[in-house]
Automatic annotation (TrEMBL):
Biased composition, class Low complexity, residue ranges: 252-266
Domain of life according to the entry: Eukaryota
PANTHER family noted in UniProt: PLACENTAL PROTEIN 6, RHOMBOID-LIKE PROTEIN 19
Transmembrane segments: 21-46, 66-84, 96-118, 124-147, 159-177, 183-201
GO BP term, pick one: retrograde vesicle-mediated transport, Golgi to endoplasmic reticulum
Membrane topology note: Multi-pass membrane protein
UniProt keyword terms in alphabetical order: Membrane, Transmembrane, Transmembrane helix
Chief place where the protein resides: membrane
Basic and acidic residues composition-biased segments: 270-288, 296-309
Entry's localization field: Membrane
Sequence segments annotated as region (Disordered): 247-309
Protein name: Transmembrane protein 115-like
InterPro entries on file: Rhomboid-like_sf (IPR035952), TMEM115/Pdh1/Rbl19 (IPR013861)
Length: 309
């Protein structure tokens, strides 16, 4: 192993081609709006201009207006993508990003129009909304699905609580900022659409079905246990609306509980396999990083010994 390979380690390597390409798009979009500020009017989501500029429902998610936004989004994309893409596959990973980005923008657009008609505040119509944060929140839902019980030593928290923690922090911060409308709906809808996609729409070639209907990934698991008896009955209504047909056509007799009602179509074995793949991918990456760190240490010791001689 050469010193050049060891100097960088593996922490900053192993990023997928798709993630690096999307990171370039985020950085390029930020540069464009810095050089040409007027481009924000055409690329960001401005509800009053979405018709006829409908393309901003897609482009808004890839335009970061601040340097902090582009740094956080790029880092999050590269590092979380390095975990999720190998497990989902590049095609499914890209479909997830596109769907979450587009549908989040649609929901934010509808929310802004609704708030305008309720409050008659024109700021909701002309506030430029953009950023990759909705997809990042969707990524956290993916982490919750794949490695829910993995404890994050730096937070002393299990990975399954990451989406809930991110939203809680965003809501608290919104009380102290004047522009919370420009990011809070995006975070909320990004999390919810990410869960909807993984729960009902994500393709599963191995089991020839879509989604993850396991109990461990139910909507109520985003909330503390004492709130779940209240959340479950409401969630059950949407559960039947969104997966009723799948439940009726499924040949699997295994049931899962949603708000006290048992619905067929769940596969706890597949959910367990998914978690095992996620844990294995994470362990392999951490082992590779530890090996590289050990190699760097050994190389440094050799260099020191050579200098002493």
């Amino acid at each position: 192993m050469s010193s050049t390979q060891l100097s960088g380690g593996t922490m900053f390597t192993g990023f997928t081609r798709l993630c690096k390409g999307l990171a370039a798009v985020l950085i390029g979009g930020h540069i464009v709006v810095q050089i040409l500020p007027s481009a924000v009017s055409y690329l960001a989501l401005i509800p009053a201009k979405t018709i006829p500029f409908a393309w901003n429902l897609i482009t808004a998610g890839y335009i970061e207006q601040s340097i902090y936004g582009v740094v956080i989004s790029t880092i999050g994309l590269l590092f979380i993508g390095k975990l999720l893409e190998p497990i989902w596959g590049s095609r499914e990973f890209f479909k997830f990003i596109f769907a979450v980005n587009f549908l989040t923008s649609v929901c934010v657009f509808i929310t802004a129009i609704s708030l305008y008609y309720i409050t008659r505040e024109e700021s909701y119509l002309y506030m430029p909304i953009s950023g990759f944060q909705g997809v990042l929140c969707g990524f956290l839902v993916g982490v919750k699905q794949i490695i829910p019980d993995q404890e994050l030593s730096w937070l002393k928290l299990k990975a399954k609580w990451l989406p809930s923690l991110a939203l809680l922090v965003a809501v608290v911060v919104s009380f102290f900022t004047v522009e919370s409308a420009s990011y809070l709906p995006t975070l909320i809808f990004g999390t919810y659409i990410g869960w909807i996609y993984l729960r009902y729409w994500q393709s599963n070639a191995e089991m020839k079905r879509r989604g993850d209907s396991s109990d461990d990934f139910a909507f109520s698991t985003f909330f503390p246990e004492f709130l779940r008896p209240v959340i479950n009955p409401v969630a059950a209504i949407f559960e039947r609306m969104l997966c009723g047909r799948r439940s009726e056509t499924s040949d699997d007799s295994t049931g899962y509980t949603s708000g006290g009602s048992s619905l067929p179509g769940s596969d706890p074995i597949e959910a367990s396999r998914r978690r095992e793949r996620g844990a294995r991918a994470l362990e392999e990456r951490l082992a590779s990083e530890r090996l590289a760190a050990a190699g760097r240490t050994e190389e440094n010791q050799k260099d020191d010994a050579t200098q002493n001689v």
